[in-house]
Design a protein that fits this description.
Layout: H1 2-16, E1 21-25, E2 31-35, E3 41-49, E4 55-57, E5 60-73, E6 81-82, E7 111-116, E8 120-125, E9 135-140, H2 149-152, H3 160-177
Parallel strand pairs: 2-5, 3-5, 5-9
Antiparallel strand pairs: 1-2, 3-4, 5-7, 6-8, 8-9
The chain binds copper (II) ion.
């Protein structure tokens, strides 16, 4: 009996930490990773990498309103582009905020930063690798999940692998913000 209780408390600990780390898998086995969700930070870095499959790592980060995200090229050739009509993409970010487009980064260590002054959920993509699910999300502040295009827009027009990532992230974000 004592052992059962101890074991249960360990499981609870694991559950409450589940908003960090791997939350799902891409179609080819690459991880969908979440960092800081529910515990936003003022600045954080997302790696753009080709090792083990083209991807952003972490897939999702959570920053405070006014916080900064820096994308750093680790390997491969990538960009970070907000889902917004200005970038020829569907709107998956607050419509009153400015979209970003890094252009292609090709030198290791190259960086691109965005400071987020508007609360909300921002989805973005690496345009050459959208078809393999190289997409990501930035949560800014504590937005109401009901008002966010990223959470309410139909994902089905996107490539299948991108849809799988966002559907996984939607569940995590709704749980964290709900
Ligand atoms: Cu890429």
């Amino acid at each position: 009996m004592q052992r059962d209780i101890a074991r249960r408390s360990v499981l609870v600990g694991v559950a409450s930490a589940s908003l960090a780390g791997c939350v799902g898998l891409f179609g080819d086995g690459r991880e969908v990773t979440v960092s800081h969700l529910g515990d936003p930070v003022t600045e954080t870095t997302v790696s753009m990498t080709a090792r083990g499959g083209d991807r952003f790592d972490p897939t999702l980060v959570h920053v405070t309103t006014g916080g900064t995200v820096t994308w750093e090229l680790v390997s491969g050739v990538h960009d970070t582009v907000a889902y917004h009509p200005d970038n020829d993409k569907p709107l998956r970010m607050p419509d009153n905020a400015s979209p970003w487009n890094s252009g292609l980064l090709s030198s290791g260590g190259e960086e691109f930063s965005v400071t987020f002054d508007t609360e909300g959920v921002y989805d973005y993509v690496c345009t050459p690798h959208e078809h393999v699910g190289m997409v990501g999300r930035v949560v800014v502040g504590s937005p109401s999940p009901d008002d966010e295009p990223a959470l309410s827009q139909d994902t089905s027009p996107l490539p299948r692998e991108a849809t799988r990532v966002f559907d996984t992230l939607n569940q995590q974000v709704k749980d964290a913000l709900g």
